[in-house]
Amino acid sequence: MSQHSHHAATSEAPWIKWSLISIALGFLTLFLVLPLAVVLYGAFEAGLNVWWQAVSDPDALAAIKLTLLVIFIVVPINALFGVAIAWAIAKFDFKGKTLLISIIDLPFAISPVVVGLIFVVMFSTHGWLGPWLEQHDLQIIFAVPGIILVILFGTLPFIARELIPLMQQQGKDEEEASLTLGASGLKTFWYVTLPNIKWGLLYGVVLCNARAMGEFGAVAVVSGRIRGETNTMPLHIEVLYNEYLFTAAFAVSSLLTGLALVTIVLKSMIEWKDERKHRIH
């Protein structure tokens, strides 16, 4: 087959290409760019002073601090779990491996509201572990620990799912060579495994962070929505909106949107670094 016929068989007419591009851009503008523009306009419509008053309100600050606290706890735990489980699945063969991979994907399949209800059934006062928790003066539901647990559950697959195919593709030859040369397991992980997975790990961390910031359904069920105590940023935004404080709701939303945009920029940078690495090699 000639080069010309191959090109003709794999190319479309220019009008098809530009039609598809126009449809894609129109869809993105309508459902992504326009809503973001509405949020930013609503946040700053009344001026910067009003925006600052909204985001510096004690309840808003409490919601921001709680959201950041949850991120600082959940993301490192999921990073450790993701690396450990990906290493186990990619480097070792054992019975139940396929089942374990399926279980990791479970949070993707369960509704966040159902997740919240599961934890209520387990840890509430009248739940399975409620009496024991009450005897030891431990409160999970309607408190920060419950919020951390449901977000930890919901974000569990992101880092593991990013690392498992990456580590399977890389194989275990380099680790075996390192161990054969006398390196310890810790040194092998630090100097061989970690450099090979660092971009995938960072990518998973960014995705995990984004999901943790925006989690709503499960948190709404277990938090009790106690203003100034157990409201994360998404819950606080809902409270403001329900009270018809639209400018304040948009102001806090703009913070969450800003964090999301930073996440997208980091994600794009990591993807660019990863692609550049593959081009070099």
Features:
81% helix; 281 residues; 14 helices
Describe the structure.
By secondary structure, the protein is mainly α. It is 81% helix and 0% strand. It has 14 helices and no strands. Helix 4 packs across helix 11. The model has no long low-confidence stretch (mean pLDDT 88).
Helices and strands in order:
Layout: H1 3-9, H2 14-44, H3 48-55, H4 58-91, H5 97-104, H6 106-109, H7 112-123, H8 130-135, H9 144-170, H10 173-180, H11 185-214, H12 217-223, H13 233-242, H14 246-280
Helix pairs in contact: 2-14, 3-14, 4-9, 4-11, 7-9, 7-12, 9-11, 9-12, 10-11, 11-14, 13-14
Brief summary of the model shown:
Helix content is 81%, strand content 0%. The chain has helices at 3-9, 14-44, 48-55, 58-91, 97-104, 106-109, 112-123, 130-135, 144-170, 173-180, 185-214, 217-223, 233-242, 246-280.
Annotation field: number of helices: 14
Spans of at least 5 consecutive residues with low confidence: none
* β-strand amount: under 5%
The rough form would be described as globular
Largest sheet, described in full?
Answer: none
> Count of DSSP E strands?
0
Mean pLDDT over the residues? 88
Report the C-alpha radius of gyration, rounded: 24 Å
Q: Gap between N and C termini, in Å? A: 31 Å
Q: Which structural class best describes the helix and strand composition?
A: mainly alpha
Indicate the percent of residues in helices: over 70%
